[in-house]
Structure formats: structure tokens, C-alpha cells
């Protein structure tokens, strides 16, 4: 089977094709990363961190360097438009002792890309390669890159770009199967990801990303394209169980039952408790709103609870609503 093989990235040997938590702004903080590791993620990524923010001593950026016990292996991901700033930021990140430093060349958000950072770097491949080379040279931690197929439909040059990034010294490359102009719309094109993986010039691990939302899509991606890892993003929000569900399916073909209402409620509550300790009550309660509905996805007649969960501002109020959910007799739909 294409996923039952060892994959070495940097100094870490994964005994099976790794299932990886993608970096997501205001999502992949230490509390969520810990929960995903507990539920089967093999490797987790931090939120995006601005190189300029780190250098300016911006409190929010510095907070993102926190690494909790139990979440390793962990990557800290940085983005920026200036080579000097990225080198300086990489040195600062190295002090936090992550297992990897990842360079974000994939974020499509206008305020990032318009400044030439994130996916904006896809419009200047020579600069992208030189930035990568300089960051690799500046730190001892293995450096990886996450990027997209190209800027638009007319510039999907990822096969050649991957070769150049490999030559710059990276330990692994993650490819999101969309262009910058697609953002997150349409269907991810795994054909080009497969071309990169099967390019005889490529020797580093290639990780695929895009539209992995359940065990079947994970199985198909590995079977059809032979990548060395799968990175999963939006499908993990409120659903850390997806990692163990995918692993079980890959190993046995068995489809695990969805978590019970009690399991969902207890993990949601624990997630919020950890978040309150890490970032403070108000921020935690607000940022958890994107998780609440997905934690309880599939529960019939859940709308009244959903409306309450996204309307309150105190953790204690959320806990009270979760307690009511626990006392409700739901029959989980298929």
C-alpha cells in the first residue's frame, strides 16, 4: 500500500505517511494542536507568523512561538516579503526550538499577497528561491516550504519551482493544489502535485494539500498520487477526530463511528478551557465560535444551541450551553 512506508523529514522518521495539521490563522494555536496530536495527527503546524511582527516585538506574533508539551513534532511557519526580515525572523523562531521552520509561500489573502508575501511570492520565483536559500543557510533547524501551483492558470510552474526550492536546501515541500487566484474555490488539482512527486529529479518528500476532507479522499490522494504526506486544513476545524478516522481507514479499511455527543461536548469544553488559559477569555470565546458548530455537526435540531453558542461572550455561559447539550437526547445523523 502506498501509505505504509517510512518517511524521513529532517531528523524525524515517520513510520507511516504522516497526516499533518495545516497552518490556519486563529485556528492552529497550541491548544488545538495538542488536541489534534491526541486524536492522531502526526505533525502539526503553527498559525502564520509575520516576520515583520516578530522583529517589531509584536505581542501577538511572539505569543505564536509558544510550544506546548505533547504537540511535537511541530512546525512554526513564517511569512514575509523581505529576505532580510525573513532571515532575522527565522533566527528568532529557532530560539523557540521547533522541529521545523516552514516558509509560507501559499497564503492567498489580499493583505498578505499584495505585499509580495505568502502566495504573492509566486509572482517572483527567483526571489522566492533566494529567500528560501538564505533562510536555510541562517538556521540549523530543517526548513520546509508550503506553496501553491502558481499565481494563476497561466503560471502553474510548480514542477520547475519545486526543483529550484529543493536545490535551495529545503527538507520537504507541501503543495496546495490550487493557484493563488483560486483562493479556496473550485477543486484542488492533484495532477500537478503528482507530477512533482513523480519527477525523477525530486528527492525530498512531497506533501499534498487540498480537499482532504474524509478517509476516502485521503485514501484516493495517496493511492493515485503517491505523495509522502497529507496536510489537512479546514476539515479539522471542530473535528480533531479526522486524523484517527483517516489512519484507521488507511490501515484497515474500517470506517470509524462518528464521536458521540458526549465525546464532542467534552472535547469542545476542554478546547475552550485550554484556549482561555492561553489567550484570555474574551479572545478564546470569540475565536472558538468557528469550532462550536463543527464540533456538533450532524446533530439534528441543533440550531437553537448554535445560535446561543455564537452569541455569548463568557466562557461560563458556553459551559452552561454545553451542559444543556449533554442533557439533550440527540440521535446523530449519518
Description:
This protein has 334 residues and is of the alpha/beta class. It has 2 domains: 246 residues, TIM Barrel; 66 residues, Non-ribosomal Peptide Synthetase Peptidyl Carrier Protein, Chain A (Orthogonal Bundle), CATH 1.10.1200.80. The chain is built from 15 helices and 10 strands. The strands form 2 sheets. Strands 3-4-5-6-7-8-9-10 form an 8-stranded parallel β-barrel, surrounded by 7 helices. It has a two-stranded antiparallel ribbon with strand order 1-2. Strand 1 and strand 2 form a beta hairpin. Helix 1 packs antiparallel against helix 11 and helix 4 runs parallel beside helix 6. The chain starts with 6 loop residues before the first strand and ends in an 8-residue tail after the last helix. The mean pLDDT is 94.
Task: Give the helix/strand layout.
Blueprint: E1 7-9, E2 12-14, E3 19-21, H1 30-38, E4 43-50, H2 51-55, H3 59-63, E5 74-79, H4 83-95, E6 100-105, H5 110-113, H6 125-138, E7 143-148, H7 158-167, E8 172-176, H8 190-198, E9 206-209, H9 215-225, E10 229-232, H10 242-252, H11 261-279, H12 281-287, H13 289-295, H14 303-309, H15 315-326
Amino acid at each position: 500500500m502506498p501509505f505504509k512506508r517510512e518517511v524521513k523529514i529532517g531528523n524525524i522518521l515517520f513510520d507511516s505517511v504522516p497526516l499533518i495539521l495545516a497552518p490556519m490563522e486563529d485556528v492552529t494555536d497550541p491548544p488545538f494542536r495538542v488536541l489534534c496530536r491526541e486524536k492522531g495527527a502526526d505533525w502539526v503546524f503553527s498559525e502564520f507568523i509575520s516576520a515583520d511582527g516578530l522583529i517589531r516585538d509584536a505581542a501577538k506574533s511572539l505569543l505564536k512561538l509558544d510550544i506546548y508539551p505533547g504537540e511535537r513534532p511541530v512546525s512554526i511557519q513564517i511569512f514575509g516579503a523581505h529576505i532580510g526580515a525573513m532571515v532575522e525572523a527565522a533566527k528568532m523562531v529557532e530560539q523557540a526550538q521547533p522541529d521545523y521552520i516552514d516558509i509560507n509561500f501559499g497564503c492567498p489573502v489580499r493583505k498578505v499577497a499584495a505585499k509580495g508575501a505568502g502566495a504573492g511570492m509566486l509572482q517572483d520565483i527567483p526571489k522566492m528561491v533566494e529567500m528560501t536559500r538564505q533562510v536555510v543557510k541562517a538556521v540549523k533547524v530543517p526548513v520546509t516550504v508550503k506553496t501553491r501551483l502558481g499565481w494563476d492558470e497561466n503560471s502553474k510552474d510548480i514542477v520547475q519551482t519545486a526543483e529550484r526550492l529543493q536545490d535551495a536546501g529545503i527538507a520537504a515541500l507541501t503543495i496546495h493544489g490550487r493557484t493563488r487566484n483560486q483562493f479556496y474555490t473550485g477543486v484542488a488539482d492533484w495532477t500537478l502535485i503528482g507530477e512533482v512527486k513523480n519527477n525523477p529529479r525530486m528527492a525530498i518528500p512531497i506533501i499534498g494539500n487540498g480537499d482532504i476532507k474524509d478517509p476516502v479522499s485521503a485514501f484516493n490522494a495517496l493511492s493515485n498520487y503517491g505523495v509522502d504526506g497529507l496536510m489537512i486544513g479546514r476539515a479539522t476545524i471542530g473535528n480533531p477526530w479526522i486524523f484517527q478516522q483517516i489512519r484507521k481507514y488507511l490501515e484497515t479499511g474500517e470506517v470509524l463511528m462518528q464521536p458521540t455527543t458526549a465525546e464532542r461536548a467534552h472535547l469542545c469544553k476542554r478546547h475552550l478551557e485550554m484556549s482561555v488559559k492561553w489567550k484570555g477569555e474574551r479572545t478564546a470565546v470569540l475565536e472558538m465560535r468557528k469550532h462550536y458548530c463543527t464540533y456538533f455537526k450532524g446533530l439534528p435540531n441543533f440550531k437553537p444551541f448554535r445560535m446561543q453558542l455564537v452569541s455569548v461572550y463568557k466562557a461560563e455561559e458556553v459551559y452552561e450551553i454545553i451542559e444543556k447539550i449533554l442533557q439533550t437526547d440527540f440521535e446523530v445523523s449519518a
